[in-house]
Design a protein that fits this description.
Blueprint: H1 21-28, E1 36-39, E2 42-45, H2 54-67, E3 85-87, E4 94-99, E5 103-108, H3 109-112, E6 122-123, H4 124-138, H5 142-189, H6 195-219, H7 223-238, H8 240-245, H9 249-259, E7 260-266, E8 269-275, H10 277-283
Helix pairs in contact: 2-6, 5-6, 5-7
Length: about 300
């Protein structure tokens, strides 16, 4: 924001713009940007053009609630494998620690709690290299890549034709919900309902409208774009070892969350793995064509 030359009201006379985390958080939670005006605790549809869609605004609120960015304390010792590694001896989670500020290692929480586990401290370098080798084993073969591409193309064609009716249904539902909002306001002005009931109903309607808009946005994605995105994703699964090696730590964490529920480690070596349901579906040769297209809720957080 500073590089863009953006300034807030209090920084007009200062040599650089000043934005605090709290002021940015307040902006992200202001419904006026989504077209909603609040007066005396009541929300009204604004006459101005919204800067963002309500569905996007709601998504931002969910992300902020889940991460609590404003008051979040950063972990002292984060690592992209933390949360994925488990002890091959007792099954407890492996935690990460940097001893004396320069010696990183994983240790078994079970042993730390004196459950009888014999797992010694595990070298971070050993585990990182073992996981890198693991990706060489789990990536899709060229034959599977071709098979998945063909199945996804067939599924996309069938879904495109069936989504036309759903688009019409969603558009009608949005109109009905919008009309209901105005009728609620009229009922409040006529003193037929209380302000508390108005607020409750308005919040519910806004949430339903946002859900419909988000679904419409998904349906309106062009077939060509979706097909290209799927091709890239499948190709990536076919060379995930190379992609993992070239990824930053944050993206490596996402790779691990997508492929593995748990990775069990014994003395620096991977003993066994528990794959995610999503990746199991991709590997399964018993599924139907629909297995190649899963909802975004199946892999969180959704990423480009």
């Amino acid at each position: 924001m500073k590089k863009k030359g953006l300034r807030n009201k209090s920084s007009k006379r200062r040599p650089y713009p000043v934005f605090s985390k709290s002021s940015i958080a307040a902006m992200l939670q202001n419904k006026i940007y989504a077209g909603i005006v609040t007066y005396k605790g009541i929300e009204y549809p604004g006459l101005h053009e919204p800067l963002v869609e309500m569905s996007l605004f709601q998504t931002v609120q969910e992300v902020m609630r889940s991460r609590d960015q404003a008051g979040e304390r950063k972990r002292k010792h984060p690592h992209y494998l933390k949360g994925t590694l488990y002890c091959g001896d007792c099954g407890s989670r492996l935690s990460f620690l940097i001893a004396k500020g320069k010696y990183p290692y994983f240790y078994c929480l079970g042993r730390h709690r004196k459950n009888g586990c014999s797992q010694q401290y595990v070298s971070v370098d050993e585990v990182e290299k073992a996981v890198e080798k693991l990706y060489e084993k789990v990536q899709l073969s060229p034959g599977w890549v071709m098979k998945l591409k063909a199945e996804c193309q067939q599924e996309l064609l069938s879904r495109t034709s069936s989504s036309l009716l759903e688009r019409k249904s969603l558009a009608k539902k949005i109109d009905d919900l919008t009309n209901k909002r105005f009728k609620l306001l009229e009922a409040y002005y006529a003193e037929a309902i209380t302000i508390d009931l108005l607020k409750l109903e308005q919040e519910q309607l806004v949430s339903e409208i946002a859900s419909c808009e988000e679904r419409l946005k998904t349906l309106d994605t062009k077939l060509e774009s979706t097909e290209r995105i799927l091709e890239i994703a499948i190709e990536l699964a076919g060379k995930c070892s190379e992609a993992y090696m070239n990824s930053r730590p944050a993206n490596r964490r996402l790779f691990n969350q997508a492929f593995f529920e748990k990775i069990y480690v014994t003395d620096g070596e991977i003993e066994k793995v528990q794959q995610t349901e999503l990746y199991q579906a991709i590997l399964s040769n018993k599924g139907s064509n629909k297995n190649c297209l899963v909802g975004t809720a199946g892999l969180e957080p959704a990423t480009p």
